[in-house]
Amino acid sequence: MMSPKQTQTAAEISEIPSTIKHQLEMGIETYWAVGNELRDIDVQGYITCARGSSDHAATFFKYLFETHTGLPVASIGPSVATLYKANLKLDGFAAIAFSQSGSSPDILALLDAAGRGGAKTFSVLNVTDSPLGKIAETILPIHAGPEMAVAATKSFVGMLIASLGMLAGYLKDRSIISTLQLLPDLAQEVINSEKELPMGQISKASSLYCIGRGLNYALACEIALKFKELCHLHAEAYSAAEVLHGPATIAHEKFVTLFIESSGIESASMEAARQNMKSRGATVITLESIPKLTNPSNSHCRIELISPIVQIISFYVFVEKLARRFGFNPDLPTGLEKVTKTF
Question: What's the total number of domains in the chain?
């Protein structure tokens, strides 16, 4: 087991509440304005380009915008531009890149190709003075500050907030903005909380399924990645529906399934999948959602939109501890670098 001395990863997780506050102060009006622009120019759909945790943020954007605007959001593989050099035809579309560093060559190539194909280009970006920042027509800074640990944490949270700010602007819904203002305190509460997932059960798992639906499917993808890169645990992400189309077959008594709870309309299908996994002998664990707020002054808050953010912060606190319990340095995952350059 590693020394209890604070890791860089833990330090950056602890910064998330203040980072969110700073982001809301500095960036929310930009996100609102971009959302207004997307509506006013009558975008017909979106394409996203990203890798790793940033791609999971793009998945959050996908479910958020498809369910609230009815417009399609598609992830285009960067190799379409880098290897296959396809001439994209994207008139009427917006292309949105998600990136912490803004330096991966394949993301740069895809956003450039999308722009040449007629798309309006945007980047949700931490390092704004980067190659990606120079290619995009519009930058949405996430104001996360330096992120030195290899595993993304606070930058991922910032991308989700930027997506929610864009949606608020698109819908002209100030209730989403007021809901976002609750996040700094909620984030601090969950960081200070002693409640966490059962470390012993997860550490004994042969494999894990991370299961969510809608916005929480994006969290399932991010959680599965963190189990792999920080803890060397094999984990796969599935929606509560997709897992029943075959993958459930291999769930057994040494298998752990982590359900990312939702209190919304997804809850019935999540419960069906949960019971299915239990019947197969798998260990079922739940990452709980935020209880609905009971304060009358918060009656118009869209708590279901920010619950995933609080849930992923809670998980980050847990997985950093789990990595150290296994004897791994969460700051330096084996064979990985902060900026992964792929083509």
Answer: 2
Domain annotation covers residue 171: yes
Distance CA 158, CA 156 (A): 5
Residues 108 and 235 in one domain: no
* One domain for residues 36 and 156: yes
Residue 143: inside a domain, yes or no? yes
Range of the domain at 210: 190-325
Same domain, 174 and 214: no
Region for 138 from its dihedrals, namely left if φ exceeds 0, alpha if ψ lies in -120 to 50, beta otherwise:
beta
Asked whether the predicted pLDDT for residue 338 surpasses 90, the reply is no
CA 221 distance to own-chain centroid: 8
Number of H helices, E strands in the chain: 13, 9
pLDDT of residue 2: 44
- Tens-place pLDDT, residues 212-249: 999 999 999 999 999 999 999 999 999 999 998 988 88
List Cβ neighbours of 21 (8 Å cut-off, separation of 6 or more).
Answer: 184
Q: Does residue 290 carry a pLDDT above 90?
A: no
Alpha helices (H) in the chain, listed in sequence order: 8-14, 16-40, 52-69, 79-82, 105-116, 131-135, 154-171, 174-180, 183-192, 199-203, 215-231, 267-279, 303-325
**Statement to judge: residues 32 and 64 lie in one domain:** yes
Q: Is residue 330 part of a domain?
A: no
**What percent of the chain is predicted at pLDDT more than 90?**
80
Shared-domain flag, residues 289 and 204: yes
Least confident span in 38-52, 59-73, 216-230, 266-280? 266-280
| 246 backbone φψ class: left, alpha, beta (φ>0; ψ -120 to 50) | left
The predicted-structure confidence for 248-285, as pLDDT tens digits, reads as follows: 888 887 899 999 998 788 988 999 999 999 999 999 99
Same domain, 223 and 199: yes
